[in-house]
Amino acid sequence: MTKKMAIIASKGTLDGAYPPFLLASTAAALGFEAKIFFTFYGLQLLKKDLSPKVSPLGNPAMPMPVPMPNLLQILPGVEAFASWMMRRKLKQKGVASLTELRTICLDSNVELIACQMTVDLFDFKNHDFIDGISHGGAATFLAFASEADITLYI
Amino acid sequence: MTKKMAIIASKGTLDGAYPPFLLASTAAALGFEAKIFFTFYGLQLLKKDLSPKVSPLGNPAMPMPVPMPNLLQILPGVEAFASWMMRRKLKQKGVASLTELRTICLDSNVELIACQMTVDLFDFKNHDFIDGISHGGAATFLAFASEADITLYI
Amino acid sequence: MTKKMAIIASKGTLDGAYPPFLLASTAAALGFEAKIFFTFYGLQLLKKDLSPKVSPLGNPAMPMPVPMPNLLQILPGVEAFASWMMRRKLKQKGVASLTELRTICLDSNVELIACQMTVDLFDFKNHDFIDGISHGGAATFLAFASEADITLYI
């Protein structure tokens, strides 16, 4: 029987964006049926313009090229710099970009579902999102999740 | 056979509070048996006075009415403003308040369990919490989770 | 049949470090087969020198001895103070240290797996890590997770 994986993606940051797309594309490569339900900030990951940022603020575990006190981390430009640095690192190491990973997910039939409640809440427009996604509610997703072999909230 | 859902709620912020209560009440409406284990900061969600805040700091994915650099986000009042804004948005859109959702959970027999270790750790008092909750440890909860169809760590 | 638990540990902070080690050691004590896959910042938890910090920034739910505005929280020393305070509290209350919990996990045959992609990404060296861990990729871990009774992303 086909294995199933259900992921709830709730984060919209650069470091929160990789795990759902990486895990779902890996699962699809293994022959799993995978669905991701994008809710709250996660909805940002379905936008056409996919350019999430990462912030070192409040995350003392983030590897920085030089140790940097919070007092400096709030300066304008640090967030952009940290995001650029992580993106460059990923590229240097040959990790696919988020946009590529997202396309791989779609091409391998991972269902990408926008949480309708969050769409309404944050006034997203349908033309903000990429093609090929679906819309749905928590109830429908939980029904799928209850049949899944792996359930993750990211 | 009744489906089961096991949630571990570890966050105490406004945006971290909605998912466990929303998912558990939805699951209960679908006829699932649902239990939430509140641990670490999540324990704040069982307090009588339920007024969690949300912070834009360290979360560049949070939709703000105007883009705001971190340098401004640390100013006194911004956190309170962001929390007020999100609460107002939820209300405008007809989303139930956290207190309402929590009551719906209790009324539909979602078991709300306070992690005893965290209660001791942060010196919470029993009269801090709402009525109708239970207390327990990780071992008991894992036994339930291992029988559940959906397991999520939020 | 032996129950199985699969945890993905993605955080490298003090408060993000306890849940995977606590849950996995509890599961092992219950006779479960447990594996933790350390990815992204979670990889910090496999380092020989295990001294994660916790930050109150961006987490308004963190219990502080005195309420402290974000404007003060960014001052040098506050993060170190919050980390020291939480560590002291845990010790006072008789909670095992992270290093102890990690050793308990290893001694009770919890498999600790370093995500190879993250090791390469952040240029970790093998001598940075404790002995007794293994290395692996997402595909192998998902295969295990799909057989597990409990799957959690922390």
Automatic annotation (TrEMBL), chains A, B, C:
Pfam families (alphabetical): DrsE_2 (PF13686)
Entry's EC annotation: 1.6.99.3
TM ranges: 21-46, 66-84
Keywords: Membrane, Oxidoreductase, Transmembrane, Transmembrane helix
InterPro entries linked to this entry: DsrE2-like (IPR032836), DsrEFH-like (IPR027396)
GO MF entry, a single one: oxidoreductase activity
PANTHER family according to UniProt: CONSERVED WITHIN P. AEROPHILUM, PEROXIREDOXIN FAMILY PROTEIN
Protein name: NADH dehydrogenase
Annotated organism of origin: Methylophaga frappieri (strain ATCC BAA-2434 / DSM 25690 / JAM7)
